């Protein structure tokens, strides 16, 4: 490489966004493409990738592993659910777990993952650990996809201030040929295919240097059979779990019930409000009042269609307003949350005041009128 040319670039190479963000974005894009449900990040350090991935709605299980317990613990509290997660539980379930241990050891808690990420990890492994790594990740964990990133040493001369390795803890840094031959051999051995890419574009005229971070995306060639997943893999737990957060989810009956109750009351209030305004509009005129039924014009088109159907008309009787559950069940959100009418009845039983036959939500409006 021409020295002047090299020096010129050394002055200007600054990645935007920063390289670590580009690596994490690469993983996020991969998640959006393959939609894995269970993702494990090996060598998760301060959990920054996990923090980003927890917003990917396809993911239900996230796990982090690191040999350094303290670095994981530094910011692990940021993986806990926030008050808003309790106020508006998500429809998906999400569990995040952090383990302290080494990628050189097998632990059953690492089985069953769809995607395993190893971002800037392998270059931190001592030789004996690196030797065991393929058997643990590809042989034992055997996820559908593995993504491995590592520095490309051919790019180092372009980086300001890098004399040997990019980080004092790196045990090696491979050039493109070294990484690719290790990756191809690993893929061949464990029946994966591998494709190479990277982040951190080289400057124009320096394309031969390759990406600053080289990445291998491994895809398992054959689906795992049920048997090979668990029964052939009797291993003892060796990792220590240092953190576990179970996010509130509508898959949990307790949160579903709360959500359904508030939606039912909300829907019933809307219908009642419309009904009462119409009621007041007709006043005491007996002729007009006799016609009083919530007709299409007093509801939205949608509601109008509903009330046209039998047994779905809300009505006032004395000081009570009755909103049929069948009408409430037709509200899209209530319908989606409950799935079936029976489930709706079960979830609100004893929690919402109903008519004596249980077919309608009942409101007493006596005091409401006084307030007005
Ligand atoms: N993946 C992170 C940071 C990588 S730094 C990111 O994308 O930003 C490498 C991490 O690997 C460090 O946190 C280090 O503690 C961890 N590590 C080193 N050897 C390990 C091993 N044998 N098993 C698990 N983690 C290891």
Automatic annotation (TrEMBL):
Example GO biological process: piRNA processing
- Which GO terms of the molecular function aspect are on file? metal ion binding; RNA binding; small RNA 2'-O-methyltransferase activity
Keyword NADP attributed: no
Q: Which SUPFAM superfamilies match?
A: S-adenosyl-L-methionine-dependent methyltransferases
User: Mind listing the UniProt keywords for this protein, alphabetically?
Assistant: Magnesium, Metal-binding, Methyltransferase, RNA-binding, RNA-mediated gene silencing, S-adenosyl-L-methionine, Transferase
Cofactor(s) demanded: Mg(2+)
Q: Which reaction does it catalyse?
A: small RNA 3'-end nucleotide + S-adenosyl-L-methionine = small RNA 3'-end 2'-O-methylnucleotide + S-adenosyl-L-homocysteine + H(+)
Q: What is its EC number?
A: 2.1.1.386
Protein family membership: Belongs to the methyltransferase superfamily. HEN1 family.
Q: What is this protein called?
A: Small RNA 2'-O-methyltransferase
Organism of origin is Edolisoma coerulescens
Instruction: Tell me the name of the encoding gene.
Output: Henmt1
């Amino acid at each position: 490489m021409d020295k002047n040319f090299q020096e010129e670039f050394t002055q200007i190479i600054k990645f935007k966004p920063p390289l670590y963000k580009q690596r994490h974005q690469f993983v996020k894009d991969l998640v959006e493409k393959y939609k894995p449900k269970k993702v494990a990040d090996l060598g998760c350090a301060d959990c920054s990738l996990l923090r980003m991935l927890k917003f990917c709605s396809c993911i239900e299980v996230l796990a982090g592993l690191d040999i350094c317990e303290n670095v994981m613990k530094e910011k692990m509290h940021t993986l806990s659910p926030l008050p808003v997660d309790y106020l508006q539980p998500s429809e998906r379930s999400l569990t995040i777990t952090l383990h302290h241990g080494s990628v050189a050891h097998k632990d059953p808690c690492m089985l069953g993952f769809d995607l395993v990420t190893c971002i800037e990890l392998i270059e931190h492994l001592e030789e004996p650990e690196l030797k065991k790594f393929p058997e643990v990740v590809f042989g034992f964990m055997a996820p559908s996809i593995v993504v491995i990133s590592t520095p490309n040493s051919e790019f180092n001369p372009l980086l300001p201030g890098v004399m040997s390795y990019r980080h004092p803890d790196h045990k090696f840094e491979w050039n493109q040929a070294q990484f690719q031959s290790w990756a191809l051999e690993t893929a061949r051995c464990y029946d994966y295919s591998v494709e190479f890419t990277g982040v951190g574009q080289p400057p124009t005229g320096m394309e031969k240097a390759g990406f600053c971070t080289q990445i291998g995306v491994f895809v398992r060639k054959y689906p795992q059979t049920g048997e090979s997943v668990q029964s052939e893999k009797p291993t003892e737990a060796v990792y220590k779990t240092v953190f576990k957060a179970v996010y509130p989810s509508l898959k949990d009956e307790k949160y579903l019930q709360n959500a359904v109750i508030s939606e039912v009351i909300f829907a019933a209030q809307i219908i009642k409000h419309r009904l009462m305004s119409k009621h007041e509009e007709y006043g005491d005129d007996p002729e007009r009042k006799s016609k009083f039924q919530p007709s299409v014009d007093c509801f939205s088109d949608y509601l109008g269609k509903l009330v046209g159907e039998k047994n779905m008309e809300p009505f006032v009787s004395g000081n009570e307003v009755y909103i049929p559950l069948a009408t409430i069940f037709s509200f899209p959100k209530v319908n989606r949350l409950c799935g079936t009418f029976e489930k709706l009845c079960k979830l609100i039983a004893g929690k919402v005041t109903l008519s004596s036959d249980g077919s309608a939500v009942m409101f007493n409006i006596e005091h409401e009128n006084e307030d007005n």
